[in-house]
TrEMBL record:
Catalytically driven reaction(s): ATP + H2O + phospholipidSide 1 = ADP + phosphate + phospholipidSide 2
Organism expressing this protein natively: Astyanax mexicanus (Blind cave fish)
Protein name (record): Phospholipid-transporting ATPase
NCBIfam families associated with the record: ATPase-Plipid (TIGR01652), ATPase_P-type (TIGR01494)
Pfam families reported in the protein's UniProt record: Cation_ATPase, PhoLip_ATPase_C, PhoLip_ATPase_N
Domain of life: Eukaryota
PANTHER family associated with the record: PHOSPHOLIPID-TRANSPORTING ATPASE (PTHR24092:SF177), PROBABLE PHOSPHOLIPID-TRANSPORTING ATPASE (PTHR24092)
P-type ATPase C-terminal domain: residues covered: 813-1066
Amino acid sequence: MGSVLSACGLNFKKEKVQGERHLRANDREFNLSFKYANNAIKTSKYNIFTFLPLNLFEQFQRLANAYFVFLLILQNRHKNDRQVNNRKVDVLIDGQLKNEKWMNVQVGDIIKLENNQFVTADLLLLSSSEPLNLIYIETAELDGETNLKVKQALTITGDLGDNIDRLAAFKGEVRCEAPNNRLDKFTGTLAVEGQTFALDNERILLRGCTLRNTEWCFGLVLFGGPDTKLMQNSGKSVFKRTSIDHLMNVLVLIIFGLLACMCTILAIGNGIWEYQQGSSFTVFLPRQEGADAALSGFLTFWSYVIILNTVVPISLYVSVEILRLGNSYYIDWDRKMYHTKSDTPAQARTTTLNEELGQIKYIFSDKTGTLTQNIMTFNRCSINGKSYGEVVDFTGQRIEITEKTEKVDFSWNSLADPKFSFHDHALVEAVKQGSTEVHAFFRLLALCHTVMPEEKTVGNLYYQAQSPDEGALVTAARNFGFVFRSRTPETISVVEMGTNTTYELLAVLDFNNVRKRMSVIVRSQEGRLTLYCKGADTIIYERLHPSCSKLMEVTTEHLNEYAGEGLRTLALAYKDLDEAEFQAWRERHHEASTALEEREEKLDAIYEEIETDLLLLGATAVEDKLQDGVPQTIEQLSKADIKIWVLTGDKQETAENIGYSCNMLREEMTEVFVVAADTAEGVREELVNARKKMCPGSPDEAPFQKSRFGSKKPKLVLDEKADGEFGLVINGHSLSYGLQKDLQLELLRTACMCQTVICCRVTPLQKAQVVELVKKYKKAVTLAIGDGANDVSMIKAAHIGVGISGQEGMQAVLSSDYSFAQFRYLQRLLLVHGRWSYLRMCKFLRYFFYKNFSFTFIHFWYGFFCGFSAQTVYDEWFITMYNLVYTALPVIGLSLFDQDVNDRWSFQYPQLYSPGQQNQYFSIKAFGKILLHSCYSSLILFFIPYAAMHDTVRDDGKDIADYQSFALLAQTCLLMVVNLQLGLDTYYWTAVNHFFLWGSLSVYFAVSFTLYSNGMFLIFTSSFPFIGTARNSLNQPNVWLTIFLTTILCVLPVVALRFLLIQLRPTINDKVRYKVRQAKAVLPPPVRRFPRRRISTRRSGYAFSHARGYGDLVTSGRFLRRPVKSRPALFPLAESPIAENSPQTYRNIGEGMPSS
């Protein structure tokens, strides 16, 4: 039975927590005994067995949605799953390589990957085609980063090579950690031939990566399918519903209650009437034996349930889906969200969340690949106290650098990178003139790194860098005449100003997160020993010789200037070494490097010994290029009162620099808090101190919103006002404490008081936890945007997930609700499409309830005049076609085309977005107003025609006070009023709106005259009893006067109230629409804005690569030179913002406003 349920996707057993994983290579029988997951994946929510019950459960969460059971279709994720599971890979089975489907790969199998193939599962790298058993992988699908990363196999497995017999005979045993979601950590051991080897993340290939520039490699499967780190981070697919959907559930319950009340009142009335008056009518309406007033009232109750069923919004759900589908197509068709460079249009991957786009309060964004292009450029530098990189005119004034600015000519350097650009000619002149300090500066950049070169053809160099910032620095040295050409484990070859020079590489003092610097020790051809060091400026300054104090002051000014421009800075220093001193240090270094215990700590201490009394050379400034329009987009979203949180795996310095570059963090802010404590108490103290600074009167206990009686949902935390603008930066270690149950409310309160929050070094799971925290305790709609697989869990957790498509992979897009190619399109998605969708949906709902309640309440009033007999007040054909024909198209036209202001004005005044965040347009309060309005209208619509028809005669003296004539008059008045009300609600008239409105009225009169004609009565006598009613009634002036009077009485209070509200309490929409009318709908040309230079006193440390460098690798004693291979361009040409729609400028709402 259990296997059957499991096959159906229903597993009621408690999942067993897996401890240590144990597997053997090439032993399927042994590995299958542990019942590890195979390599098939499942991201769909249903299968053939669970589809109906699970989908019914989800759809029944919308009360009154039962009729949708037959309209549901299975989500198409199964197609994606089949596509992935049926990919082919070479698997070593029974001593032979066999081409197998991914789904058939088992734990313990050895598989072969070839260049540009996706990694099938989480693998232990065994061997590769490259020297030193290296491979190069691209992790764009995991983290959105396009720079290649290097992995290296153990020597003992690397010697297996591609020898199939030796690989088949390999019997290594692996003991490792249980499946988890930590992308940057792995712990395990490999036992082979009686020896045990430690395994770490450098030996592991994760599913989702792509093999690059490596002919082949072999790997041992450690984790398959759902156990892989990619799938562990993917999060659970959930059924997303909008806040309006949730509200509709409450309203449907209210409507059911209202229906029950009306039916009860009418049933009681019928019982009383039957008891008092019923006996007088038994001659005409004989009763059955045993029937009495109570039974009559009971039957009348159910009769009125049928008659008044139009108050229950069954047809509303169909109309809502049509509306959502139409607004989804607007997003797909929007040319202003089409990215020409990558041929990528915006895509609405769901049709159920459009109006939620108009209510976003919190945006959670990834950094790399989302805000930035992950392309670094060498912009500025300071050498021996002189700053380079600015362009000035003959008066000494700084000139803004544009595409037309003259670039430095590097044609004198045959090995220069043609894609590198620099604009300050003074630096080239200093190089050519042989400045000692400038040469030493670029010599350091050419030597102090762990970059690996590849020379495709003679002179055509390509650098493999652990991070793009290192590549940018080595490329800068290359263009200025110091070309890093090749390396071996013992040497570095450099072409210095056209002269080939080889340095002996004696030691690499590698970078780590604590040291924040790296050094190399080299011996020149002349025998000179030199230590070159680069690192965070604060770290380098602590190790400088006292003689550098004056130079340090000048360089510090330059560093502050660079940091103020949002650049990533780095200080450079060197030191000449004594031979005897170095040899003594080298021996101590060897002892530390071979220590079995506390090796890292001992090496750090040895490094500290020699990295002292350094001489400062200068500093570099590298720009992490933002995507086009990112600062403007963030500014616009901030003006719309949307809070932006950045959740990134990058280190703190990197994230802070990007925060300033993007205008999320600003110098004008009162304070930017940094939370970096290593203990729970330390984190609590820092959070509390920050909160008290922002709001001194803030209570110790979180202020909760009073929950509804009987609500099981957690209490909502109220917003607290901060005295000023603040930012918060918190690292992943501190965040892990902050997300604990006893600290999460403190974290939430402090973070939500800040305008901007940046979380650094966070895991994919932490990203999702932060989103869930805000969703749980804040009454706010959240949006998550990212581009890599590490963003998938965050995208799924948020109310709305947006994927950035393009070169960074498609994992985020496949899990998203909306996708496009550039972050800047987010402002159009929210401020235009989202706001319009919310406005249209709210108008639709208000109007839909109004017309249906007005229609139904007339039945209710009529019940008091027909003996509560459950007789309908309208012709049955009118009842049938009221929602289906007469009022369907006009409201659809309103819901698809209406807009309060056009897109340009929406950008000009982003405050127009705030009503959606506050649910101003549709709420329970608004619903109550609609009920009152409908009740008033129904009273007018019933009693005015009733009074007008009572004892009334025609012009020729004939009586027209009959039931049929009254029914025709009442329904005509109703249709006139609801259509006029729709006209008042319409802001933006199109030809389609006019056609639908006037066409529906025309159809009504045409159908009425046809259905009430003699011909229809003669053909279908019982179905069309209203013979001649239309022509006999509608040719009377008093009937049309009644229609006019009724319409005026219904609409006049609405017009008067709106006029008074606009004059006394105008909304932001009223003000902007007035301004549009003033400007005659012509927007003045946007002000051209130049990026202003920001002066900052903030110190910035250079952000190194995320992981340890290649120091151990380049000194490993093995040859590194690689054969020439073809490679696609790593960095595509940047897109010109001129060709795209630039974001609009912001203006104060009070400018030119009339006084109220």
